[in-house]
Amino acid sequence: MMRTHTCAQATTKLSGKKVTLAGWVHSRRDHGGVIFIDLRDRYGITQIVFEPKHGKKVHSQSESLRREFVIQVTGVVRARKKGMENPKLQTGQVELLVDELNILNTSEVVPIEIDDRKVANEDMRLKYRYLDLRRPQMHYNLITRHKIIQSAREYFYKNGFIEVETPMLAKSTPEGARDYLVPSRVQQGKFFALPQSPQLFKQLLMVAGMDRYVQIVKCFRDEDLRADRQPEFTQIDLEMSFVDENDIYSIMEGMIVKIWKEVLGINIKTPFNRISYQESLNRFGTDRPDTRFGLELIDITQMSAKCDFSVFKNAAIEGGLVKCLNTVGGAGFSRKDIDELTELARIYGAKGLAWAKMTDKLEGTVAKFLSEEQQNSIIKITNAKKGDIIFFVADKNEQVVNDALANLRLEIAKRQNLIDDNKFEFLWVVDFPLVGWEEEEQRFMALHHPFTSPKDDHINLMHSDPKKVLAKAYDMVLNGTEIGGGSIRIHKREIQQKMFELLGITPDEAQAKFGFLLDAFKYGAPPHGGIAFGLDRLAAIITKNDSIREVIAFPKNKTAMSLMDGAPNVVDDKQLKELHLKLDFVKKK
């Protein structure tokens, strides 16, 4: 080995001992001829010292050292002078007096700072990702991600799961996002698809009698990106036979408890709270609510149908929705704040944002159109106190109202400092609808995926009243982020065919897309269900990052490009010819 210890191990325990360290020059300081170097490796930082009186040759060598040089040093660990200690460092009580120096490699001036206090813009960080990853914060992010994976694997192995790898080159069965396609050179004119998830394969593993499957697996979706999306992402994916929803809840809560204890040293209480999809929409406007704070939404649709405010009244009469939100102490909101919140509501489709301020009574434009009885009713149901501001959104489209107020709720909570970043609120959202109506395509779409089982007593409603059918589906939500989702699957061929009929998929289409799964169901498929957790999202939350790009070693940017290696790139005509492909656009000169 080129070192006897890491830079984190040079502590008071090694005082008086000769050691060899290796790493990067993090910083250099010259104090009257005495040269101090902070030597950095993955594990920490050690201060090393070159004194002219101690060794002229090695001191002379040290004068050429610059930041990010890679060096090897040998010397004796000694206590720092009194008053020169650094309590912020694990090694801050000692330093290494260097006897020998070996410059392993030099470095040009780096284009970005290797310093958590001076973080470059994201494009530069992604272009020079190998330098950005030298930062301690990025080391922490990736090491924490590793610990999550190790903890999860140990947990599943102890609970009887076996890890099975499923194919990366599979059949294209688009039902959700667009597939990434891979042309076949051997099978002319045909394509593989990179899997959006191992869904079909893990169901086949249940048919195969594997009973408990788990995989830390890459998935691919060609969809518009945002902070919590990447074209390739990682799932903790599992499936179990002979289980119901409660078995899934119990197993997954156990995984969370283990990860939080081992990675963060925090004890998580179980069982987690559960609320229905509809209750979640009613109270929070979303199916992934952040329950670390209150500010719940109040439905006043019924009362609005009898008021004189046309915006509210028309929405109520036309079968829409009218909801309000009490800011609880929003008196500090200026007119500028209200205008900004109004613009936020408009982003999500709201035509505007009505509001009323609570003094001894409700005051404002809205209040003028409400009777005293209606005002008192709103004050009572919102528990409004003096100084509170109540916001209202009305629309004939329920989703517009819920989306606008859900996002308004989060923004208000941030502005009022209501969110405790050290709190972890886990929640199961259950009883999802099986399908939703897609206006553009004029057909029903699976809310989760086409293999999700309806509740047993709702099967007879699949054709007579599909909107009332609830699914055996569930999401785990943490602090307003969906971290896992799954369902009990359909395991009987006849029910699966009913589902395809409901989705407008003909028998021929079903056979062409999913024939291999339907055929497998002929041969005794067991009842089974599973869930997939977003590893990237878990790691981002645990490391307190807003973007999953911070916990992925080599992510793509917001336009699905890798600025570091230039992917995706143009390939030459020879490669295209081998794949029997011809591009239909004219290349720029």
Describe the structure.
The chain has 589 residues and is of the alpha+beta class. The chain folds into three domains: 12-105, Nucleic acid-binding proteins (OB fold (Dihydrolipoamide Acetyltransferase, E2P), Beta Barrel), CATH 2.40.50.140; 139-274 and 426-551, BirA Bifunctional Protein, domain 2 (2-Layer Sandwich), CATH 3.30.930.10; 293-415, GAD-like domain (Gyrase A, domain 2, 2-Layer Sandwich). 29% of the residues lie in helices and 24% in strands. The chain is built from 17 helices and 22 strands. The protein has helices at 56-62, 122-127, 129-132, 136-158, 199-207, 245-264, 277-284, 301-304, 310-317, 335-347, 365-368, 372-382, 398-415, 493-502, 507-520, 535-542, 573-578, and strands at 18-31, 34-41, 44-50, 70-79, 94-105, 162-163, 180-183, 191-194, 212-220, 232-241, 273-276, 297-299, 321-326, 354-358, 362-363, 389-395, 426-430, 435-438, 443-446, 473-478, 481-488, 528-534. The strands form five sheets. The chain has an eight-stranded mixed sheet, with helices on both faces. A five-stranded mixed barrel has the order 1-2-3-5-4. Strands 12-13-16-14-15 form a five-stranded antiparallel sheet. Helix 4 packs across helix 16 and helix 10 packs antiparallel against helix 13 (398-415). The longest helix has 23 residues, at 136-158. The radius of gyration is 30 Å and the shape is globular. The relative contact order is 0.10. The mean pLDDT is 93.
